Amino acid sequence: MAVSSTREAHGGVLVVGGGFAGAYVARELRARGATIVSKENFMLYTPLLPEAASGTLEPRHCVVPLREMCPHAELILGSVTGLDLQAHTAAVKTDEGVQTVAWRELVVALGAVPRTLPIPGLSEHALSFKSLADAIHLRNHVLHQLEAADAALDEEERSRRLTFVFVGAGYAGVEALAELLTRAGARAIAGEDQLIIVGPARPPAGEVTSLPTFDDHRIAMAAALLALAAPGCLIENPDCVAKSYPNFFRDLESLVRR
Fold first, then answer.
1. Residues 161, 21: Cα–Cα separation, whole Å
2. Is the pLDDT of residue 195 over 60?
3. Does residue 174 contact residue 202 with C-beta atoms inside 8 Å?
4. Strand order in the sheet with 74-77
5. Residues 69-94: what's their mean pLDDT?
6. Does residue 224 or residue 131 have the better pLDDT?
């Protein structure tokens, strides 16, 4: 693999990473320019991943081309494999070989990597939900399970195919869960911790969804979203919910009015 001659970063600024931070740094530099090194030629808008997974949005609507977003920046598709802080150079691995990029100012914005919680079976059986490819894989997986459940003759097998477990009730977990509920018309059971289980079938009118006491108000808000996503469901123990999340019903009412 040949090493190219040294090239200068556009505007003297080398931005490693084309996510939120990297793309916006390059954009805000405007006419001064910058050189972005990224594996992808787009910036992924991660808050829209649940919509891409459910099919509400096309995957292409969750990304913004970096060249369009940062018209004054130069883009190198590749990965930085080494930095020389003394010489102010970076080794960039591309499909054409390794390039050396000289810079005066360096911005490292590589983002984060998913953290696998120490829950038995999680790393072996769970699907990650970080990239656009993950969202598409999740959508295809859910569709496959729905089709397999429809073809199943055994009720136990059908129930197994239609049961999904979400570990985590942060933004990604709650939003993905709500999207699945909306699309699949599923019923939901909120656990006492950050484990939310989505089960099969459409809930009949008047079915009761029991909401236990929640130590974390985010879990209670997840329950609120579940109640909104399942029309006809009732809250069996409102006192417990109000105790752990005093503004639950006020917030729920404001969401309903929207």
1. 39
2. no
3. no
4. 74-77, 35-38, 13-16, 105-108
5. 94
6. 131
The pLDDT-based confidence of 196 (bands split at 50, 70, 90) is: very low
| pLDDT tops 90 at residue 89 | yes
C-alpha–C-alpha distance, residues 157 and 151, integer Å: 10
Phi/psi region, residue 121 (left: phi>0; alpha: psi -120 to 50; beta: rest), is left
Amino acid at 161: R
- Location of each CATH 3.50.50.60 domain in the chain: 3-108
User: Of all residues in the chain, what percent carry a pLDDT higher than 70?
Assistant: 67
Tokens, residue 157? 């097998």
Tell me if 29 sits within 8 A of 73, measured CB to CB: yes
Residues belonging to the chain: 258
Please give the class, per CATH, of domain 3-108: alpha beta
- The answer to whether residues 76 and 39 touch, using CB atoms and an 8 Å cutoff, is no
